[in-house]
Amino acid sequence: FFFFLLPPIIFEAGYSLDRKGFFENFGAITLYAMFGTIISTFVVGYICFFAAKIGLVKNIDSENPMEALIFGALISAVDPVATLSILGNEDLNVDPLLYSLVFGESVLNDAIAISLFKTFFQFYNPETSNTDTSIVAVILSFVFVSGCSILVGVGLGLGASWLFKHTELRQYPKLETSLLLCFCYLCYATAESIGLSGIMALFFNGVVLSHYNAYNLSIVAHVATEQVFSTFATLTETIVFVYMGMGVFTGGFQNWDLTFSIVAFVACLIGRAINIFPLTFIANLCRDKSNKIPAKMSVVLWFAGLRGAIAFALSV
User: pTM of the predicted model, to two decimals?
Assistant: First the structure.
């Protein structure tokens, strides 16, 4: 999943990004995607941990909060594919600001949630319940991994752009498309091999390549790359959701726990509310009066925090 199905989805999200809308609202998107995901992770995680502590939930470690935080990280991965499909409908005439916020948060949130999940998982030790120092180490590790991953993605993106600009690859459109695809997997594999987040590196790699390298491609390769990456992303996305649906019939729900499901659902709603509404208030303090995020839009953002393929894959 993480090496063959997820990279095309993440890269295409970065490569086809509406950069103007994304970077105009980058402050609010970063608040929601980074700080909001961290808030949601800890809120959901500790609600589930305390539910286990009082005996309401049986299948979460009631002595070590790290297991609950692992669940909080994976369930905080927002995957609003259905919401984006609705918001992207031209007939609905959706506010471009709302679309930019939902889309921007979703693509960044996936990478951050996966990074948090992997970081928590490295520190999880079922045999000990002393995690006072581990929480601080987890946050520091997450910040370091995120920053270095972005540097790797941007660096390799700029390197690929320089190579395409100073060579005669424009004469070979098939080679251009193939080499660009190889650079994508090189970025992902490089980040993963040195212990960083390949997903976060790949997303920013896609943004850089789209912004700087698109002008270096021949007309044929320019059209082909957009179509090829879009096709790959659609195909892998479909495979992921088919796999999720098959889980119902292949025993994926044999350990179904209704109580835990209800607790987790309520925790997700609370975590999302604590994430969206205060951060919207903070974001509005730094925005122009004409560009404030209205209260109704905040409610839609709260509702748009659907969980899907990423959370499912991490749990598996």
Answer: 0.78
